[in-house]
Design brief:
Blueprint (H helix, E strand, L loop, with lengths): L2 H10 L24 H4 L12 H10 L6 H13 L3 H12 L6 H13 L3 H8 L10 H13 L3 H14 L4 H10 L1 H6 L4 H7 L7 E9 L3 E8 L4 E8 L4 H17 L7 E5 L4 E5 L6 H7 L4 H20 L2 E2 L8 E3 L5 E3 L6 E2 L18 H4 L6 H17 L7 H9 L11 H8 L8
Antiparallel strand pairs: 1-2, 2-3, 3-5, 4-5, 6-9, 7-8
């Protein structure tokens, strides 16, 4: 099973399944159809047996009302395992022709095209997932790697940076971008010379030691406060315009007004440099826990419970975070979660000023994408998505009642989601302990 197939199965919470790799030389037109008669016309198979994978896809291709994305992905993978990837791709393309976005199906098709050395076809099917309104991090990662293979370095770099702009803790994108940037970084050790030329924060007080991570908005460095002898995380914004200035102020002022041990402290603000000195937490984040793996369901639930406690403080102070995701759940040494990156936070009830939806698509509730007034239910949704991801990779299962409640956090209608108080009550057995 390829890396991309494993990612898709992990997101669906399914175990890995073996799949034979189709021959890259195979042609769509070379594969005969095994279905004739009524099944070929898209009609239902006899009631005495379940439908074949081909019948499932043909039914969806002939009738848009029968489209089921998860079933389509499963059927595609089954036909691929049977050595009939070409026919599967033709049928899946007919399903897409109905006009639905179907991001999981597109990603599955692109991975199969890549396995058949059909990179241009893969890029074509991924295209709709790379638009701002429907940006998909997994699709962007695969598209960037295709560009990289073809020598289109600028296009690959743009996509890696777009991923990191949405999730600065995305390990695979960061690793690939680091490889592209290796020569540039070696000529300019950790960006120190550039920052020293700027003066301000770095002039006399903060000494840059190394880069911790970068995204589309800014780069985070490990720096030493030479006055106080402590390490800090120094975040420097890449651009210096009005929008970045406003975001910088929000990111600095919101945590300062909340003042809670589960909210990352802002230690310094530099207006000239567009920089923030933040509390440095060397234990990583929930994203690094996911990347390392090897943890159990109790560990995952303790992380979620701690994040819920921090969010409760944010909401009590009158704010909505609006960008909860594993990379923004930092960890103290005792395992407690610390919320960070308040750059798009809003007061409860406030309406976003920009016309473009802000946040990370994978964790963003529908109402946030439509610029609705900020409400705590948006953070409940995002935390639910993060919990799904953590639990899918954990050993063991959560209690059924808790699993049901966590699923309810990601309902499309915010009025049907449990409150944060309900979620904290259900998670109370895992609250307070080391994660």
């Amino acid at each position: 099973m390829s890396f991309w197939q494993r990612v898709r199965h992990a997101l669906r919470g399914e175990p890995d399944a073996s799949a034979d790799t189709p021959s890259p030389a195979a042609s769509v037109a070379d594969e005969p159809s095994a279905t004739v008669g009524a099944a070929a016309a898209g009609s239902a198979p006899p009631a005495s047996r379940p439908p074949t994978a081909e019948e499932v896809l043909r039914g969806m291709a002939s009738d848009p009302r029968r489209v089921d994305e998860l079933a389509a992905v499963t059927a595609l993978e089954r036909m691929e395992a049977e050595g009939r990837a070409g026919s599967a791709l033709s049928l899946a393309s007919a399903v897409l022709a109905h006009g639905a976005l179907l991001p999981r199906l597109r990603l599955a098709m692109a991975e199969t095209f890549c396995a058949r050395a059909q990179d241009p076809d893969a890029q074509s099917v991924l295209g709709p997932l790379l638009q701002d309104a429907s940006f998909d991090e997994l699709a962007a990662q695969l598209s960037a790697e295709i560009h990289e293979r073809a020598g289109r370095i600028d296009q690959a770099r743009q996509l890696y940076e777009a991923i990191l702009a949405r999730d600065v803790g995305h390990a695979r994108a960061a690793s690939r971008l680091e490889r592209l940037d290796a020569r540039e970084r070696s000529a300019n050790t950790a960006g120190g010379a550039t920052l020293a030329a700027e003066g301000a924060m770095t002039q006399g007080r903060y000494r840059i030691e190394r880069e911790l991570g970068r995204g589309g908005a800014g780069t985070v460095f490990l720096a030493r406060d030479v006055r106080l002898g402590r390490l800090v995380a120094l975040k420097i914004y890449h651009r210096r315009g009005r929008a970045e200035w406003e975001r910088l102020l929000v990111e600095a002022r919101t945590p300062a007004q909340i003042e809670h041990p589960l909210v990352c402290r802002v230690l310094d603000l530099d207006e000239a440099l567009y920089g923030l000195a933040l509390e440095y937490l060397p234990s990583g984040s929930a994203r690094s826990v996911l990347d390392r793996g090897g943890y159990d369901v109790g560990h995952a639930l303790r992380l979620v419970a701690s994040a819920a406690e921090g969010l409760s403080a944010v909401h009590a102070a009158g704010y909505v975070h609006r960008d909860i995701k594993p990379s923004n759940l930092l960890l103290r040494r005792d395992g407690r979660v610390v919320l960070t990156d308040f750059g798009i936070a809003l007061p409860i009830g406030a309406v976003p000023s920009g016309q473009t939806a802000e946040g990370t698509r994978q964790y963003m509730p529908p109402e946030q994408g439509s610029a609705a007034p900020a409400q705590p239910a948006a953070d409940v949704f995002a935390l639910g998505r993060a919990a799904e991801e953590l639990l899918a990779a954990a050993a063991g299962s959560a209690p059924p009642e808790l699993s049901s409640l966590l699923r309810a956090t990601t309902r499309q209608d915010p009025r049907q989601r449990p409150s944060l108080a309900e979620l904290r009550a259900a998670l109370s057995p895992w609250a307070g302990g080391d994660a």
